[in-house]
Structures are given as C-alpha cells and as structure tokens.
UniProtKB/TrEMBL annotation:
Protein name per the record: tRNA-uridine aminocarboxypropyltransferase
Enzyme Commission number: 2.5.1.25
Lineage: Bacteria, Pseudomonadati, Pseudomonadota, Gammaproteobacteria, Pseudomonadales
Pfam families assigned to the protein according to its UniProt record, in alphabetical order: DTW
InterPro entries: DTW, DTWD2/TAPT
UniProt family annotation: Belongs to the TDD superfamily. DTWD2 family.
Organism: Pseudomonas psychrophila
Keywords: S-adenosyl-L-methionine, Transferase, tRNA processing
DTW domain residues: 2-189
Transmembrane segments: none
UniProt xrefs under PANTHER family: TRNA-URIDINE AMINOCARBOXYPROPYLTRANSFERASE 2 (PTHR21392:SF0)
Amino acid sequence: MSRAQCPRCMRPQSHCLCELITHLDSRTRVLLLQHPSEVNHALNTARLAALGLINAELLVGEVFEDLDRLLSPPGYQARLLFPGADAQLLQASAASGENLPVLLVVPDGTWRKARKLLHLNPLLAQLPRVTLPEGAVSRYRLRKAPGPGALSTLEAIVQALEILEPATSFAPLLRPFEALIEGQIEAMGAETYLKNHGDKS
C-alpha cells in the first residue's frame, strides 16, 4: 500500500515540505522545461522552484509544441540558462544595458537529457545562452557533482535570480531543499552518511 502523498509538493504526507515553501515574486520570469525522467526524482528541485516562485511555470515533456508562444511573452527577452561555447556570463540587466526583464528558460534533467531537450526543440537551441559564474558549490551533499560548479536546478535558479535582481534575496527558496537533504541524511544515519559522503581529504 503506497503512502499518502501531498498533491502540491508530491512528498509523502508525513514529510510534506509545503510549510517551508516560500511565495516569492520576481521581475524575471522563469520557464522550467522538465524531462519526464525527473518527475519522480526524490528531490525534484525544479518543482520546488516552480512552487516557490510566483512568476514561474513548470512544463514536463520532451517536445513542447507551443514553444514559440512560451518563449515570446510580451515585454520579456528570452535567455537559455545552459553552458556552451557561445554562452555569455549572466549579469544584472541594468549592468548589461538591457531594460526588459528576462525570461529565463531552464531545462531540467541530467546533462544528457537536457541536451536532448535542446535537440528535440530547435527553438531552444536558437536562444541566446547565459551561464553562471564559476566556483559555485552545491549544497546537495548526497551526490557527487559531475564537475566543479555543478548545481541542482533550484540552486542554479537562485543564483541566477540573485545576479539578475541583486536587490532581492532568493535564498528562502532553498529552505525545502535543505530540509529534504537533512531528512535523507537523518534517514540513512550519521555513520552511513559520513562513510559514503564525508570529507575524504
């Protein structure tokens, strides 16, 4: 028999995160395009981002039929948050001389799945790309990062928003994420956590 699930955060009712999910507004609009393989992921940080941000939308799929409309909301300039040789370092709109707010398009999935989304949706690949400054350290202590600066989707969005809108703190978005990690560490036990994820230096 499956455990009762919260319909909002999709966590078991006994571990519901809704009390920790904030309701922040932003000038930046965030469009999350989630690969279906991420929907049932234990963390699903893209969902946490969409729940915590008023001006955000989460869509699940591999091919997005209505992408032309989604990428062209009136009064916004679309940017794809994804690394690449032609990606520009993200900076505050005022510093870059751009007055229109940003539509930040964020593919959510493993690197392989995210690249597949770009391949299957050519309009995505045509967007100007932006990337985050190097050196960020993920708070996701239960997974070995695939490379330096590798962040969860939620962490990347928080960092991007704080660059685009430096007068606002988006750190409260991370509260349910941190609680989720603490809960997983507690479930596995301190000894197991230290053995598998502790500092090896």
